[in-house]
Each structure stands twice: as structure tokens, then as C-alpha cells.
């Protein structure tokens, strides 16, 4: 009797709570589905596409995809069509008229969460589907020719596209947002209005900091200095080099040379080192001495490098370096990382990292010259 009463009570409680349970389940399912739909809208595997001047279709997608082009043969009144499907909803379904051999490109959504990319050839044109092949470099870049088109038809494909083929330039480093620079990101100044001196530290028999792998500061400094000089000159700045080759120039001569010009800024470019077993020390240090304008220059360089380069922040500092004390123009000395550091040493040996440093230094200098805070 007690068991029957207990069972009846359980059934009663279930009937009371079951609408609540079912409602929660429905709400959870709705949230999952709406979340999935939102993710599909936010994510699109197709980042960019273009037809090149040599008649090839190029795509940039998320890495790790497997894509297979499909073909619909030409019919009366229209040319052949090549299409492929990618993950993610299109940001904006559209049809773009190209002209010439390529009649148009259509980007649509055949079903939720899928982008369909269609190339429509002009009437009278088609490809050989047995030879149609989409090649990938394994990192999200694809190329596809149009086999079966005549040479004249291939040459009539007009260069056109959407999106950028540069790798994503925004990343995060130790909680800091990094946006890699390109030369196009640097501001231009009035040609010939500003003059700066770039001082590649050490040189000749003075190799500066070195590490056990043979990485030498003198070589790094000169390489980055030449890169910075080229970037600045392209933006209208007159650049004077304290040394342009692997030679030793005395500090006194560097300062005398700097003070013989009417400089708007002086930048000494160095790499750092620590002796002993201190490989955990890495990072950017930028120096000035007893000068408001020097501090402002140092801060501009430091800020621009940190915003665009993967490197630890070891702050802007004041120091009595000879070239900072004796140079009349606003002066700074930048230490681009530690050749003895367990992270910096590998980076400083790479050309791409040196270019990023050069772009950061150039950006900071240009910002300083044009008065950007």
C-alpha cells in the first residue's frame, strides 16, 4: 500500500514538473541550434578569390579544407559552369558580372551553413572537366586553371577579385593584440622635409652581442637598419646612415656625424644580450636620456613595435648611453631583443621577424615626425 502511494506521489510530482523539464530541454535545444546558426553566419571558409592576369582562378580559404570543383556542361545560350561548396554562410549572396570569357561569379547559399562559389563561363565557352584540377599549397591557398579553353579565351579572362590574399595579420601575444604591418600601412611625409640618422650599432671587429649559435648583433643591426632606411626613404624621409657596411665606427665619430646634420631624429639600432644562464630574459627595451623629445621618440618607437611584433615588453628606460647624451637631435636607442634569449634568438635569426621589426621602427619614427601622440 505504501509502495503504491509512493508511486502515485512520484507520478504526481512528474506531471507537475514534466512541463518545466520539457520546457528547459526545448530551450536548451533552441540555444544550441541558434548558437550553431550564429557560428555558421560568423564563420566563412572563403576569405578571398581572384582571376589572375594569366587566366587562373585563385582562392584563399581556411586551412585544412578538402575542396573538389564540380562542372555543369555548356548548354544553349550559356557557357559551362564550375562550382564548389565551402563551409559557412556567405557574408552577402551576390552575382558579379565579370565580362569577357568569364560571364559572372555567383556566391550563394544552397543550404544553411554552406557557401557555393560558381564561375559561369560566357556563351560558347567550356572547359574539359576531366582535366579540371584545384591545387592547394596546404595552407589555404588554391589555384585552378581552365583546361580546354583556347589560348585566346584564356587571355581574355579579366583580372578581378574580392578580399585580401595576405595572411591574417592580427594575432595575440601574451594578452597583447598584434597587427603585423606592411609598407602600405606606413604614412607618407612631404618629400625631403625630414632628415633622420640611423645608427647600426657595433660593426667591423666589434661584433657586439653574440650567442652560442654564432648569431651576431653587428650583422642583425646592419640588416635591420638597411630595411628601415628603405622603408623611410620610400615615404619621403631623407636618411643618413652612421655606417652602411660592416665597418667599425667610433662612438665619437657617430655623434660628430649626427651633429653635423640638421637632424629631426637619431635612432641607434641594437640587439641585447646577457651572459651566463639567463636565456629566460627576452624582450624589447627602448632608451632615451634626459630629454622630453627623446622620451617621446623612444615611446613612439616602443609603442609601434609592441603593436606589430611578437616580442616581450621590457619598457622604455632612461640611460646614459654616449650617443644619447651627446647627440643634439632627439635620440633613442632601441634594443630589438636578446640574442641570448630563448625566444628572441630564434626570432632575430629570421628575415621575416627582422622585417617586422624594421616596419615597427619605421612606423614609430614616422609617427614621431608627423607629431602623432
> Which of globular, elongated, flat, extended, rod-shaped describes the shape?
elongated
Secondary-structure-based class equals: alpha+beta
Helix content: 25-40%
pLDDT < 50 stretches: 1-7, 20-42
**Number of discrete helical segments:** 8
Describe the sheet with the most strands. 6 strands, mixed
What string, H for helix and E for strand, traces the elements in order? HEEEEEEEEEHEEEEHEHEEHEHEHH
Q: What do we call the CATH homologous superfamily of the largest domain?
A: Zn-dependent exopeptidases
Computed Rg: 31 Å
* Strand order across the largest sheet: 14-13-15-18-16-17
Question: What is the CATH C level class of the largest domain, in words?
Answer: Alpha Beta
- Number of E-type strands: 18
Note the beta-strand portion: 25-35%
Distance between the termini: 85 Å
CATH architecture of the largest domain: 3-Layer(aba) Sandwich
* CATH fold title of the largest domain: Aminopeptidase
Mean pLDDT: 87
Describe the 3D structure.
The chain is an alpha+beta fold and 373 residues long. It folds into two domains: 46-162, Immunoglobulin-like (Sandwich), CATH 2.60.40; 170-369, Aminopeptidase, CATH 3.40.630.40. It contains eight helices and 18 strands. The chain has helices spanning 2-42, 151-155, 217-234, 251-259, 292-308, 322-326, 344-348, 351-369, and strands at 46-51, 57-61, 70-72, 81-87, 94-99, 102-108, 114-121, 135-136, 141-144, 160-162, 170-173, 176-179, 195-200, 238-241, 265-272, 284-288, 313-318, 331-338. Strand 5 (94-99) and strand 6 (102-108) form a beta hairpin. The longest helix is centred in the first third of the chain and has 41 residues, at 2-42. The chain starts with a helix and ends with a helix. The model is unreliable at 1-7 and 20-42 (pLDDT under 50).
Amino acid at each position: 500500500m505504501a509502495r503504491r502511494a509512493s508511486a502515485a506521489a512520484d507520478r504526481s510530482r512528474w506531471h507537475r514538473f514534466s512541463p518545466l523539464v520539457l520546457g528547459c530541454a526545448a530551450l536548451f535545444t533552441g540555444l544550441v541550434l541558434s548558437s550553431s546558426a550564429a557560428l555558421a553566419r560568423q564563420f566563412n571558409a572563403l576569405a578571398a578569390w581572384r582571376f589572375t592576369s594569366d587566366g587562373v582562378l585563385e582562392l584563399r580559404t581556411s586551412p585544412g579544407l578538402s575542396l573538389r570543383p564540380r562542372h555543369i556542361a555548356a548548354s544553349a545560350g550559356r557557357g559551362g559552369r564550375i562550382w564548389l561548396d565551402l563551409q559557412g554562410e556567405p557574408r552577402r549572396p551576390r552575382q558579379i558580372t565579370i565580362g569577357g570569357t568569364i560571364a559572372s561569379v555567383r556566391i550563394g547559399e544552397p543550404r544553411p551553413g554552406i557557401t557555393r562559389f560558381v564561375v559561369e563561363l560566357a556563351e560558347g565557352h567550356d572547359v574539359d572537366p576531366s582535366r579540371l584540377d584545384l591545387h592547394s599549397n596546404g595552407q589555404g591557398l588554391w589555384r585552378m586553371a581552365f583546361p580546354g579553353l583556347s589560348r585566346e579565351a584564356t587571355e581574355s579572362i579579366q583580372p578581378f577579385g574580392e578580399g585580401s590574399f595576405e595572411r591574417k595579420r592580427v594575432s595575440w601575444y601574451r594578452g597583447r593584440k598584434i597587427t603585423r604591418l606592411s609598407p602600405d600601412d606606413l604614412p607618407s611625409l612631404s618629400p625631403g622635409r625630414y632628415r633622420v640618422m640611423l645608427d647600426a650599432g657595433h660593426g667591423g671587429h666589434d661584433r657586439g652581442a653574440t650567442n652560442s649559435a654564432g648569431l651576431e648583433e653587428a650583422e642583425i643591426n646592419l640588416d635591420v637598419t638597411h630595411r628601415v632606411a628603405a622603408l623611410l626613404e620610400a615615404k619621403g624621409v631623407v636618411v643618413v646612415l652612421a655606417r652602411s657596411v660592416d665597418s667599425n665606427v667610433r662612438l665619437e665619430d657617430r655623434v660628430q656625424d649626427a651633429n653635423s646634420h640638421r637632424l629631426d631624429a637619431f635612432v641607434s639600432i641594437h640587439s641585447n644580450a646577457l651572459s651566463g644562464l639567463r636565456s629566460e630574459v627576452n624582450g624589447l627595451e627602448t632608451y632615451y636620456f634626459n630629454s622630453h623629445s627623446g622620451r617621446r621618440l623612444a615611446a613612439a618607437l616602443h609603442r609601434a613595435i609592441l603593436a606589430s611584433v611578437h616580442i616581450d615588453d621590457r619598457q622604455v628606460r632612461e640611460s646614459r648611453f654616449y650617443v644619447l647624451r651627446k647627440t643634439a637631435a632627439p635620440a633613442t636607442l632601441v634594443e630589438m631583443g636578446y640574442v641570448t634569449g630563448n625566444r628572441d634568438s630564434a626570432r632575430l635569426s629570421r628575415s621575416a621577424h627582422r622585417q617586422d621589426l624594421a616596419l615597427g621602427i619605421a612606423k614609430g619614427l614616422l609617427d614621431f615626425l608627423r607629431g602623432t601622440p
